[in-house]
């Protein structure tokens, strides 16, 4: 992980720690190419967590937005999930 990414996650952890009581509901939002296998990988990362997952394909069908609402135990758990899905090709975290 590069320095810029490390700094981003450090700021995110600080923000989440200061603004939220944990455990708490967290909303992940991703945009990715409309590839069934890649979308399945994202969904699998949140399997067995009681997550509510919604997907919406773009008008052209090239991209899909994935929203995941799930209860997370701590800011570090939130960041760990971002890192876990970051290696999925074409995924963009919002």
Automatic annotation (TrEMBL):
Record InterPro entries: UPF0250_YbeD-like, YbeD-like_sf
Pfam families according to UniProt: DUF493 (PF04359)
Name recorded for this polypeptide: DUF493 family protein
Protein's organism: Flavobacterium helocola
């Amino acid at each position: 992980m590069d320095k810029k990414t490390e700094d981003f996650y450090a700021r995110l952890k600080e923000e989440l720690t200061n603004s939220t009581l944990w455990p708490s509901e967290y909303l992940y939002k991703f945009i990715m190419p409309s590839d069934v296998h890649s979308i399945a990988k994202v969904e699998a990362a949140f399997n067995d967590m009681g997550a509510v997952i919604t997907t919406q394909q773009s008008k052209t069908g090239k991209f899909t937005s994935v929203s995941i609402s799930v209860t997370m135990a701590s800011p570090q758990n939130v960041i760990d999930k971002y890192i876990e899905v970051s290696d999925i090709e074409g995924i963009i975290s919002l």
